[in-house]
């Protein structure tokens, strides 16, 4: 089966591509790039005015299956991924049961193969049951296809345990991804400590509760040599720690979410909107500005969503009782284009590095390039379309977005995974 | 008179004029409370639900007394004895209450933001009777009334608030209210009991040295040490707390001759106050505050619900 994408604006910094051309795809791989290509038989699409990039990857997603299917499941949330322009996601292990063994890895992979609308790279837990006490069977999980390790949702509390995790994981050449949260310092913190906690009368979640573990994990990276990826970084000083570690030459990377880039603690008003209750919390305007600078200067490697679906009834309650997290798969691309690409703060090439190239590198999965021989995982973007974020449009089971009502520019129209369309003209291909 | 509020949830939404209207209305209700028959038909036919989702005796009985003296029908709805224990959500509970066709919900809840949520869900009048560590606006009103009645004016008074500022819903309303009325506010607490940003509440100064602050104060507002709401002990012992932050007979010489002492109750005698200061005939207005609670709550109920003038005038 052949597919010819005509007149698309191709952007791929990996191969220095930024031009209008045709892409010919056969048997799931790119076979030719050029002008006025011919195809004797197959499907032809005219993508004039569209931008085509290597398929987007969100390396931080909660698919909720198994165990929390009321919030979301692999079918629904991979549809949300396709709708948002993603060709792959990395699933977090905090399901029920926890993905801390090979059987669970196989389950998620099998469900994704059966009902998924994008590739699912599975991350396994560092510790059994996410308890931070006993190492999980990382070797067996790697043998069954796990790509990375994390206790996401919690920080590994003990420094000795984290050292063991990183020491042990280093033999597999896999990254340890760290949710940085010192539980003794953070306690029951609900919102950023400072203006928001004082104004709202809620317990504070101090920036230092995150920065302490970032500093600790960088030190352990130096000690063990294990690659470290700092998840959902939210503070200016935390980012400075990562910047210094990179300057030192340590194998440290980090990710940021659109909500930490484009929302601040000031967004939480006296209506106590629980969609804005996220972990780590929305920080100050100065923190958000520093994160944007990090996105521009390369300190932030990857944009992720920390897509965290919850049911309406779990979120429609007292702020202190509502669970942390917001969904993000269907808004991330539009938010990045609207807030950073269109105003000229980053280039399309940088966007591709952040949302496509770096996540694959960090997860150590097969790269995707717009060149002959590469897997045909491609995202087609209408760079100029304007749209309004509307809960009725979400493919996700959940509606807990902090960006409902936002006016955005730029949206994925088509997504190809291994040459097959999962999204076509904005609609999921069933 | 220009009072145009549906709810009493966030004191910062009230102007100095709004607050003075409530205090002046409270003066009219004082007259009612000094009659032999202490009841007027002002809110006859209105139904007020007292939804107290955490234990409270003083505030709930004060509201209930105020409602009864205005002839409102009051229903006490205790969260701990009913629906929430059975797993019903707050929203479902409120919608159930609304099906009774009530006119107002007075709510006490241990979670911040609940009164606003109830207002949004129910559409009826809401009074916040204390939400988590956030606000307690009727407490602020009764405090202002007591201070105003004792000192004759509020403008330019220097008020010191001493104690657990960081976990206090009383402070969440009192400090902004004092600022609205033109007072200068100093908060005095061990660093472990200060909020992250006292300036956000409106405090002009903050210190951990009571002895240095005391000589400047016209009003010394002592907070209750709320042991039940403190995660991990923020001070080594009650003895040391009393030594550093207790308002005691030994500290009286540091006070202005006409400085008064307030406390929202209930008092921990021997901790934040000794009996000498708590019962001081000239300085302590603590029991006046309790009485002011009835008067200001009657005023708030009356103004929010727009009751009739029947029987208020002598």
Structure description:
The complex is a heterodimer of chains A (430) and B (314). In chain A, helix 4 packs across helix 7 and helix 7 runs parallel beside helix 8. The radius of gyration of chain A is 21 Å and the shape is globular. By secondary structure, chain A is an alpha/beta fold. In chain A, helix 2 links the parallel strand 7 and strand 8. Chain A has 13 helices and 19 strands. In chain A, the strands form 3 sheets. In chain A, strands 1, 2, 3, 4, 5, 16, 17, 18 and 19 form a 9-stranded mixed sheet that branches. Chain A folds into 2 domains: 99 residues, Urease, subunit C, domain 1 (Roll), CATH 2.30.40; 309 residues, TIM Barrel (Alpha-Beta Barrel), CATH 3.20.20. The model of chain A has no long low-confidence stretch (mean pLDDT 97). By secondary structure, chain B is α/β, with parallel strands linked by helices. Chain B has 2 domains: 140 residues, Aspartate/ornithine carbamoyltransferase (Rossmann fold, 3-Layer(aba) Sandwich), CATH 3.40.50.1370; 149 residues, Aspartate/ornithine carbamoyltransferase (Rossmann fold, 3-Layer(aba) Sandwich). Chain B is built from 11 helices and 9 strands. In chain B, helix 2 packs across helix 11. The model of chain B has no long low-confidence stretch (mean pLDDT 93). At the A-B interface, helix 6 of A face helix 4 and helix 7 of B.
């Amino acid at each position: 089966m052949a597919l010819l994408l005509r007149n698309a604006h191709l952007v791929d910094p990996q191969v220095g591509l930024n031009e209008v051309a045709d892409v010919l795809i056969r048997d799931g791989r790119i076979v030719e790039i050029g002008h006025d290509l011919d195809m004797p038989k197959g499907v032809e699409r005219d993508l004039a005015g569209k931008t085509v990039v290597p398929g987007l990857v969100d390396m931080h997603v909660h698919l909720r299956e198994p165990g929390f299917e009321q919030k979301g499941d692999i079918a629904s949330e991979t549809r949300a991924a396709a709708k948002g322009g993603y060709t792959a996601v990395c699933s977090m292990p905090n399901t029920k049961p926890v993905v801390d063994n090979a059987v669970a890895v196989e389950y998620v992979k099998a469900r994704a193969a059966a009902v998924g609308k994008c590739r699912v790279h599975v991350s396994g837990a560092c510790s059994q049951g996410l308890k931070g006490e006993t190492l999980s069977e990382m070797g067996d999980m790697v043998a069954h296809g796990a790509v990375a390790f994390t206790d996401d949702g919690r920080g590994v509390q003990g420094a000795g345990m984290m050292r063991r995790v990183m020491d042990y994981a280093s033999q597999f050449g896999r990254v340890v991804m760290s949710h940085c949260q010192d539980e003794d310092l953070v306690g029951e913190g609900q919102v950023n400590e400072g203006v928001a906690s004082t104004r709202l009368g809620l317990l504070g979640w101090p920036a230092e509760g995150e920065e302490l573990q970032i500093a600790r994990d960088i030190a352990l990276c130096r000690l063990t040599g294990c690659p470290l990826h700092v998840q959902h970084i939210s503070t200016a000083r935390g980012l400075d720690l990562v910047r210094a570690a990179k300057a030192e030459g340590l194998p440290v990377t980090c990710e940021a979410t659109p909500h930490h880039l484009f929302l601040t603690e000031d967004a939480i008003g006296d209506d106590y909107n629980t969609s804005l209750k996220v972990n780590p919390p929305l920080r100050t305007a100065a923190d958000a500005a520093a994160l944007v600078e990090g996105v521009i200067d390369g300190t932030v490697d990857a944009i992720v969503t920390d897509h965290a679906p919850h049911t309406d009834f779990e979120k429609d309650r007292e702020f202190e009782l509502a669970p942390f997290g917001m969904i993000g798969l269907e808004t991330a691309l539009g938010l990045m284009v609207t807030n950073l690409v269109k105003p000229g703060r980053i280039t399309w090439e940088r966007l591709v590095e952040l949302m496509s190239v770096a996540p694959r590198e960090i997860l150590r999965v097969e790269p995707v390039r717009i060149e002959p021989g590469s897997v045909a995982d491609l995202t087609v973007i209408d760079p100029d379309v304007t749209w309004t974020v509307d809960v009725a449009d979400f493919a996700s089971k959940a509606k807990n977005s902090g960006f409902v009502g936002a006016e955005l520019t730029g949206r994925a129209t088509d997504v190809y995974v291994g040459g097959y369309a999962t999204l076509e003209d904005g609609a999921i291909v069933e | 008179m220009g009072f145009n509020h549906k709810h009493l949830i966030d004191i910062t939404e009230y102007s100095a004029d709004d607050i003075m209207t409530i205090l002046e209305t409270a003066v009219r209700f004082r007259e009612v409370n000094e009659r032999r028959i202490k009841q007027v038909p002002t809110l006859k036919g209105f139904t007020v639900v007292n939804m107290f989702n955490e234990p409270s005796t003083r505030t709930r009985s004060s509201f209930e007394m105020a409602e009864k003296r205005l002839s409102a029908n009051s229903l006490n709805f205790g969260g701990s004895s009913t629906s929430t224990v059975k797993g019903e959500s707050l929203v479902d509970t409120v919608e159930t209450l609304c099906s009774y066709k009530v006119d107002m919900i007075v709510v006490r809840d241990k979670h911040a933001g609940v009164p606003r949520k109830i207002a949004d869900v129910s559409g009826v009048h809401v009074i916040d009777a204390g939400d988590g560590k956030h606000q307690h606006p009727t407490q602020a009103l009764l405090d202002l009334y007591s201070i105003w009645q004792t000192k004759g004016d509020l403008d330019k008074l220097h008020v010191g608030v001493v104690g657990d500022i960081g976990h206090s819903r009383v402070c969440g309303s009192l400090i902004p209210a004092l600022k609205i009325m033109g007072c200068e506010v100093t908060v005095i607490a061990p660093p472990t009991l200060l909020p992250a940003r006292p300036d956000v509440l409106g405090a002009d100064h903050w210190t951990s040295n009571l002895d240095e602050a005391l000589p400047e104060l016209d009003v010394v507002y002592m907070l209750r040490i709320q042991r039940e709401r403190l995660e991990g002990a923020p001070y080594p012992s009650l003895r040391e707390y009393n030594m550093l932050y207790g308002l005691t007979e030994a500290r009286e010489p540091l006070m202005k001759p006409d400085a008064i002492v307030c406390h929202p109750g209930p008092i921990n005698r021997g901790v934040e106050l000794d009996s000498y200061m708590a019962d001081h005939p000239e300085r302590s207005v603590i029991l006046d505050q309790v009485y002011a609670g009835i008067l200001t709550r009657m005023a708030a109920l009356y103004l929010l619900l727009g009751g009739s003038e029947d029987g208020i005038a002598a």
